[in-house]
Amino acid sequence: MEQQPTGSESAADDAFEDVVEQQAVRMAKRADMLSAGVEAYPVELPITTTIPEVRERFGHLEAEAKTGEHVGVAGRVMHVRLTGKLAFVALQDGAGTPLQAMVSFGEVGEESFGHFRDWVDLGDHLFVSGEVVTSKRGELSIWVSTWHIAAKALLPLPNLHSDLNEETRVRQRYLDLIVRQQARDTVRTRASVMRSLRDTFAEHDYLEVETPMLQTLHGGATARPFVTHSNAFDTELFLRIAPELFLKRAVVGGIERVFEINRNFRNEGADSTHSPEFSMLEAYQAYGNYNTMADLTQELVQSAASAVAGGHVVTWSDGTEYDLGGQWDRLSLYGSLSEKAGEEITPDTDATTLQKMADSLELEVALPTHGKLVEELWEHFVKPGLVAPTFVMDFPVDTSPLVRDHRDIDGVVEKWDLYVRGFELATGYSELVDPVIQRERFVLQAQLGAQGDHEAMRLDEDFLRALEHGMPPSGGMGMGIDRLLMALTGLGIRETILFPLVK
């Protein structure tokens, strides 16, 4: 028996057929324009100003005003209303700023008005030239004397009266940007955040550099890399998981305050807070430490909040207000875990005891070392209760191979993770600069790799050679740019990345 399509499948089929039909109609209009000697995609148009500039200069006008000012502007057609011999056109620039154009039979003539009626569709880019006026209703408008299609749209816009679904927003971001103000605002918010970060670093005399994305050894983080092959060098290469080891080489070379904002790639899962490709900020400061970097990170985030919200209280996409102000708490990882678990857990607690606790909670931990068990238990007991911005301090040594031993507490290292909105936003270290200890840590990582830990670091002889030339005591930090946008906007990671990777 033939299976009948479901309601949703039938609707999707109808929508597809409608798009195909509209495309055919628009292709015919394009052909008609070309046969009439009219460019459907002209290379240049006599634009004199922008839609926002028109609104800024003339937005105060009352109804039925005439300015005597003639301008040429362009925008995308978002709405057309024909009333006999007058057409009202809603134009929109790339930022979503609207402006009305009025095309009159009496002003442009019979032939031009007929072409407008026959050729112009929603989604077209349209140039109009004419006097700046206001309509009877007081709508700021262009009284059109000449017009040209600037770019003929062969596919229709989505239904402007219903929201795009998430899949469409992510897969066809260009449509999202055309029809949804929040999508446009997010792009501009991100740009403001990037400017703020760079301004803050400049105030602290940091230099921005770029380091390799293709590396012969992956390192700087515990993560599974993407692997590729260089035909030119006939060798295996890795997309970088972190810029850390190269930035530390820069510190060794005398660039004592250095940062980079660039792409990282980790061959791991994707969810609401993780993307295989993401933007990362890392910074290193000679003669700093993890407390220095915590102070800097708080300043970076709070300055970014001020850049986009005018203060430290940001408003998320759902209307919730989130306070990033004040001095952020610094919480002991072992202390907070002991409190929430109801029993004391220290760096000396053996892995067997921790494994029994994990088993009782049905927590699965791959390659269960002391450090991995502690961190998994902490995420179970403590992480869900973190709402306000919080630095979680002092981590197990075996999960932090690039971090200096704590100056006062045995078995832990001077590392913090910053949690904002309940997810990890940044991490900071007092950097391990002793090449002898660093070699020992790399050897331990190699042993974990041999046991099947795909995230374990490899021994990097060139990096060790750099350390052997002397790296000053330093602090370092790393922060995900996409996650910073999540903290400031309340959006998921796929919304903060302009073109995220999807299947």
CATH class of the largest domain: Alpha Beta
Distance between the termini: 33 Å
How many strands in all? Answer: 18
Overall shape: it is elongated
Estimated helix fraction: 25-40%
The total tally of domains equals 2
Organism: Pontimonas salivibrio
Family: Belongs to the class-II aminoacyl-tRNA synthetase family.
GO molecular function: ATP binding; lysine-tRNA ligase activity; magnesium ion binding; tRNA binding
Enzyme class: ligase
Describe this structure in words.
It is a single chain. This protein has 503 residues and is an alpha+beta fold. It folds into 2 domains: 147 residues, OB fold (Dihydrolipoamide Acetyltransferase, E2P) (Beta Barrel); 259 residues, BirA Bifunctional Protein, domain 2 (2-Layer Sandwich), CATH 3.30.930. It is 37% helix and 25% strand. The strands form 4 sheets. It has an 8-stranded mixed beta sheet with strand order 6-10-11-18-17-16-15-14, sandwiched between helices. Strands 1-2-3-5-4 form a 5-stranded mixed β-barrel. The protein has a 3-stranded antiparallel beta sheet with strand order 7-9-8, with no helix packed on it. A hairpin with a 2-residue loop joins strand 16 and strand 17. Helix 13 runs antiparallel to helix 14. The longest helix is centred in the first third of the chain and has 29 residues. The radius of gyration is 29 Å and the shape is elongated. It starts with 6 loop residues before the first helix and ends in a 7-residue tail after the last helix.
Quick description:
Helices cover 37% and strands 25% of the residues. It contains 16 helices and 18 strands.
